[in-house]
Specification:
Elements lengths: L4 H9 L9 H17 L8 H13 L2 H17 L3 H18 L2 H17 L3 H18 L2 H18 L4 H14 L6 H17 L3 H13 L8 H13 L3 H11 L5 H17 L3 H21 L2 H33 L2 H63 L5 H27 L2 H16 L8 H14 L3 H9 L3 H10 L5 H8 L3 H14 L9 H7 L1
Helix pairs in contact: 1-2, 2-3, 2-4, 3-4, 4-5, 5-6, 5-16, 6-7, 6-8, 7-8, 8-9, 8-10, 9-10, 10-11, 10-12, 11-12, 12-13, 12-14, 13-14, 14-15, 15-20, 17-18, 18-20, 19-23
């Protein structure tokens, strides 16, 4: 199985399952066949086979085999893109592998579980589990697992922002040195990609290009490695080599991954903007937003968090059952313990009710969020249809062979369509995810004087696009005409909402006096008379 998994699969598939009459043999066969398929990179989405093994080893209490069975059950859910279910099985398998004293298997499972946390941007949980993976790899002297754990800790540090960049560089360079042999070619390619991404963020352009090229050269089949093309294109963009950047970024557009396509269109939009092609920049920005929305909808981080709770609840239930057996014996000895047990039970019951109440609230919030997203998509479609009607009506008006009376009638219809389009655009903006996030931040500050959320670069990019749709590209036109800074663009977008100025400081982390000063600076850049002091009115009429 370890040295020649293809031969193992061939042997196992030659066995007729009907020949296996003993339940233990059927369970072991199911486990081995699932394992062999996984090692041969065969996608499995049907869990009926592995369930045979799980149920059998659960029934006899063989902890070592239980750990393997739950692990491969998690792999099947991973292949089916059911992240929550996969993590639930992995966490159960980790606990069983630890109980069985199998650190090698425990490290392997931790590595797979950590990757799912990382994919869903659950960075704290991912970092914690990769630190455990590193410790297990060191114990087993497993260079590949150790380097992989270091690599992902470095990637997590990159996502955590500028203060963590030195730590990320240290971990990634260490992992790169550890894998500097032909045996770890694929792993070293992944580490080189992470280093290129890091140096891109640090604006060390030569290093970013060097490691991006190295990433491609280490790949066996570069034709399918779209992230590698995107990474090199990104490095060339940061270095100001826009033609080379465009070439490689366009190669990456063949990817089916929403994240890759969203990042590619964002970069193409920025290149078009630098080159002065505003229409193309807006077109690419819209595509970036669409793929970003698709990526957001595909996230399963909530499923993983729910899975964590389920595993914790199950382990708690198992422990409670064990404790109840001991207490039953002690009750016979002392009646006093009956009272104590009654008190403990009441407290636990209250805790469970409270936990159930919290789960219900979280479920309700999730449903509201899904409803908001569905409403947003519906409004987007209606807005697109309305814009198409406006374009068609404008073409009719521009035709010269119709009389003035007909033109006037069509113009009135066009004005009506424009008003409906404006109302739809406003409602679409107010139902977008980023608008909802702004509301949550403001409400959190009003209630607790703090918020766990804040707008990131992707949020701001989407907010700018939505505001441009609402106000006929006013933000983009003003940004280019007046050469506005990023913070000034953000303030203009916020001023075009119905949020009071007093609440905007929660979003852009600036005092009200600073906001008023920046308003005057923007008006000055726009060439407004010195007496003008209402930027919001200016923006609406721009």
């Amino acid at each position: 199985m370890e040295e020649y998994p293809d031969s193992a699969l061939h042997i196992l598939e030659s066995i007729e399952s009907q020949q296996l009459t003993v339940q233990a043999d059927r369970a072991y066969y199911a486990l081995l066949l699932t394992q062999a398929r996984d090692k041969n990179y065969i996608v499995q989405t049907d869990d009926s086979l592995i369930r045979t093994a799980v149920q059998y080893y659960d029934s006899i209490g063989d902890v070592r085999m239980q750990a393997k069975a739950y692990y491969y059950k998690g792999c099947i859910y991973r292949d089916a893109n059911l992240c929550g279910e996969a993590v639930q099985e992995y966490l159960t398998a980790i606990s069983l592998a630890k109980k069985a004293g199998n650190p090698k298997l425990q490290g392997l499972i931790c590595n797979h579980a950590g990757y799912l946390y990382y994919l869903q941007d659950l960075l704290e949980q991912a970092d914690s589990i990769y630190q455990l993976t590193e410790q297990l790899a060191i114990q087993q002297n497993d260079t590949s697992l150790w380097a992989d754990a270091l690599s992902f800790q470095g990637k997590i540090n990159i996502k955590q922002g500028i203060p963590y960049y030195p730590r990320a560089e240290e971990k990634l360079l260490k992992a790169f040195d550890m894998t500097n042999t032909p045996n770890y070619k694929q792993l070293q390619a992944d580490i080189a990609a992470a280093l290129s991404s890091l140096y891109n963020s640090m604006e060390l352009n030569k290093k970013a290009v060097h490691y991006a090229k190295l990433n491609i050269s280490l790949r066996n089949d570069t034709a399918q490695h779209y992230r590698a093309f995107l990474l090199l294109g990104d490095a060339y963009f940061k270095a100001g080599l826009y033609d080379s950047a465009t070439l490689y970024i366009n190669k990456s557009l063949s990817s089916t991954g929403y994240g890759t396509q969203a990042s590619a269109y964002m970069r193409l939009a920025e290149i078009a903007k630098v080159q002065g092609d505003l229409d193309k920049s807006l077109e690419f920005t819209k595509k970036h937003t669409l793929y970003l929305d698709s990526l957001h909808l595909a996230k399963q981080s909530n499923d993983i968090l729910i899975a964590e709770k389920e595993v914790a609840k199950q382990q708690y239930t198992n422990n409670l059952g064990y404790q109840n057996k001991k207490l039953h014996i002690l009750i016979i000895v002392s009646a006093l313990l009956i009272c104590i047990i009654g008190i403990i039970y009441a407290v636990l019951r209250r805790s469970q009710q409270k936990a159930h109440h919290i789960e219900q609230e979280q479920s309700l919030l999730e449903k509201e969020k899904q409803d908001l997203q569905q409403k947003y998509i519906q409004l987007k479609n209606e807005l697109t249809q309305k814009e198409a009607e406006i374009v068609s009506q404008q073409k009719d008006i521009n035709q010269h062979h119709i009389n003035e009376e007909k033109k006037k009638e069509l113009q009135q219809e066009l004005d009506t369509l424009a008003r409906k389009r404006s109302a739809l655009a406003k409602e679409t903006l107010e139902h977008s995810e980023v608008y909802s996030k702004i509301e949550r931040i403001i409400n959190s500050y009003k209630k607790y004087d703090k918020s766990e959320e804040q707008l990131n670069d992707n949020d701001w990019q989407r907010f700018i696009v939505e505001t441009d749709i609402r106000w006929d590209k006013a933000i983009t036109r003003l940004r280019i005409q007046c050469e506005l800074e990023k913070e000034e663009v953000h303030l203009c977008c916020l001023l075009l909402t119905d949020f009071p100025v007093a609440h905007l400081e929660y979003i852009i982390k600036q005092t009200r006096n600073t906001i008023y000063r920046k308003e005057k600076e923007i008006l000055k850049k726009a060439g407004c008379p010195s007496g003008t002091n209402k930027l919001k009115e200016f923006l609406k009429n721009y």
